[in-house]
Amino acid sequence: MTYESFEYDVLVIGAGGAGLRAAIEASSAGVSVGLVCKSLLGKAHTVMAEGGMAAALGNVDDRDDWKVHFADTMRGGQYLNSWRMAELHAQEAPARARELEAWGAVFDRTKDGKILQRNFGGHKYPRLAHVGDRTGLEMIRTLQDHGIHQGINVHMECTIIELLKNGDRVVGAFGYDREKGRFRLFTARAVVLASGGIGRAFKVTSNSWEYTGDGHALAYRAGAELMDMEFVQFHPTGMVWPPSVRGILVTEGVRGEGGVLRNSDGKRFMFEDIPDAYKSSTADDEEEGWKYTQGDKNSRRPPELLTRDHVARCIVREIKEGRGSPHGGVFLDIAWIKERLPNGAEHIKKKLPSMYHQFKQLAGIDITQEPMEVGPTTHYVMGGIRVDADTQMSTVRGLFAAGECAAGLHGANRLGGNSLSDLLVFGQRAGQYAAAFAKEQTTAAINSDEVEAAARHALEPFEREGSDAEGPYQVQFDLQDMMQAQVGIVRSEGEIQKAVDGFPGLHQRANRVGVQGNREYNAGWHTALDLRNLLMVAEAVARSAILRKESRGAHFREDHLEKDPEQGKLNTVIRQGTGGEMDVVQETLAPIRDDLQQIIEDNK
Amino acid sequence: MSSATFRIWRGNADGGAFEDYTTEVSEGMVVLDAVHQIQAEKANDLAVRWNCKAGKCGSCSAEVNGNPKLMCMTRLNSLPLDQPVTIEPMQTFPLIRDLVTDVSWNYEVKKRIKQFAPRAPDAPDGSWRVEQYDVERVQEFRKCIECFLCQDVCHVLRDHRLHDKFIGPRYFVYTAALEMQVLDTADRVNDLANEHGVGYCNITKCCTKVCPEEITITDNAIIPLKERVVDEMYDPLTKMLRMFRG
Description:
The complex is a heterodimer of chains A (604) and B (246).
Chain A: E1 4-13, H1 17-28, E2 33-36, E3 53-54, H2 66-76, H3 83-102, E4 117-118, E5 128-129, H4 135-147, E6 153-155, E7 158-166, E8 169-177, E9 183-193, H5 214-221, E10 226-227, E11 232-239, H6 253-256, E12 260-262, H7 276-279, H8 286-293, H9 308-320, E13 330-333, H10 344-351, H11 353-363, E14 372-381, E15 384-385, E16 399-401, H12 418-440, H13 448-463, H14 472-486, E17 490-491, H15 493-512, H16 523-547, E18 556-557, E19 570-576, E20 582-588, H17 594-602
Helix pairs in contact in A: 1-4, 1-12, 2-3, 3-12, 5-16, 10-11, 14-15, 14-16, 15-16
Chain B: E1 2-12, E2 15-25, H1 31-41, E3 61-64, E4 67-70, E5 85-88, E6 95-97, E7 100-101, H2 104-111, H3 132-142, H4 149-153, H5 155-158, H6 169-179, H7 189-194, H8 206-210, H9 217-234, H10 236-245
Parallel strand pairs in B: 1-5
Antiparallel strand pairs in B: 1-2, 3-4, 3-5, 6-7
Helix pairs in contact in B: 3-6, 6-9
């Protein structure tokens, strides 16, 4: 067969914040760049980010600097982070934020005209550069509007189904366009994966249909290692009602602006359980917490702004013990600040416009008048493709990864606001080093047998049309139900094992699904093809979760409630075995540099 | 549980027809939920474009009972369910399939607009000093989620098909955001008048009415741009000065 073919020095797969930033960087290094996005340009999940981008600019509190940001990130990640990535991230985020402004981003301002920064969970000082509660939109639009003038060739609504190798090196990718279902063959000297997360492996998620772990699975099948896949972040506040919007994100910014969590008794339950590591930095009472949210530098943060893993578990506890809200969540109240602020209602609308809009339209609730109902939602995966901290190259030559699909920066738990900065810092680095790598390579031959096999495999679901083949949606739903129930926020060996045992059956069903219709914009076919990736990443999560017999960060085991100092020195590594089986092992973290350890001690 | 009927356009550029699907509806559902349910249960190959399902990405634009809407933000309880709910693709753009249209023209238009060109930074670290008051005016325009419903409803595009001569409301909002950005130094007024067709807009405000982000497109973006064109290109004094300067 012949295919529509394209040749680039650098091919970037994914066009959210990380992919766009990588493409811009590679392009400015003078190489040819192709950018593939699963949806239209500018619609990637980055657009959903609300709260802001963490960068130690020190505009609001000049005590902040990269060292404090580094220490906060490591504490939040429970010291499983790649310390080198955490160092680079904290050092380079300010320059990446300023650069966005040079490209046209319009951030909210301080009184003296600098970029305004807000408080967020786990960040010691106000650190999140933001635009109301639509920072992600501002960021992706800025990158998009800058990127379209850089000579990048954008392939919209195109999905990659396989990476292509020559020897030990990735030399291209194979995919299809949504519009007609035609195959496309990409030859590239370097490939950057920036494909985002895996949220669709769970039933309740803030992620859209795209987040099926494509990059994770492509890398895994190409022989790259994945790391720390047990760490899935359940954001504490997603919408719970009405049922159709369950899981949609409610920004942490609500709590940053003074919003409080209450149970059905009206009690602020977050005061009841404060982890030791945060006792000294958490407010003693409601008054102190309120003052903190209003910028008082001598006050400490309210417990609602503890890390996301902890807040999510406290919410689950309240619901389980019968103190939840009518629709199975808890109450998040921002309306109460009217007692403290004379123009409270206007203030809320100004600071949280899209939350106001979202609740008003989707739930018929005016958040300036009544509390919201919220509960945890699958939001983000800390684990991902194992990369070199400086270059973002994976363990396979020529294959790079940045953003959510890469592992390392966030360790066991990500702080809010550290994602947008992650995308820019490591998107830039991946673009730079991918371009440098590409310049050193010649274009390698593509193995046409490999391509033919991928094409045949992709078309198989059509051959089963009309027989008694099952459609793809029910398999996806059953996987989501299983992961939600057995590998969710609270885990135990027995439950996770049930999920592990469930995979062979799901794989079998996925291999037999049939689809109706033809190849034009056929959602059923796309879902059938995505299933393979989704099953792979879900299994990686489950198998990693069973191996980590401790509770750390986002990974909570009710049969191992405590942190185990020995396990705290281990990363979980996944690779495909020679017989196609999934190998999961634990590997010791590289010892931290002394100067960085000292920064952690100084900030304890 | 009750049920409702959805009359959905099925077809491609070669032709098609409405098909009726009846499905269960429950409290709080939006149009996109119903479409997804139909897709999962009855029509696996139904083409629909969507992403965030929270009114933030602008992907699921369509015409619901004839009105340009985001399907994810249109609740069923805002529609009469005793008759079929009609769902069809946007009419201004070429049809790809079912509810999905080819909106690539919009992306081409944006490339033709001069990009942001900031003045030299105010501080040695490369940053600027800007008042909150000055950013707020522009932030209204930057709320745009590029759903293209304003383009869909604009009669210059929809009825007169002047896609070659007129960039449409979305790109006047985009131009306004650049022109009113205090840091920007580029001049787009000549392009607005001669290349981008701002004069074709006759201020019927249809775009403003359908904007899901409630951007006051006509009053805050298009009219000020028209005024700039008039001030710079047709003001007698400026015109005379230009004649002297050549």
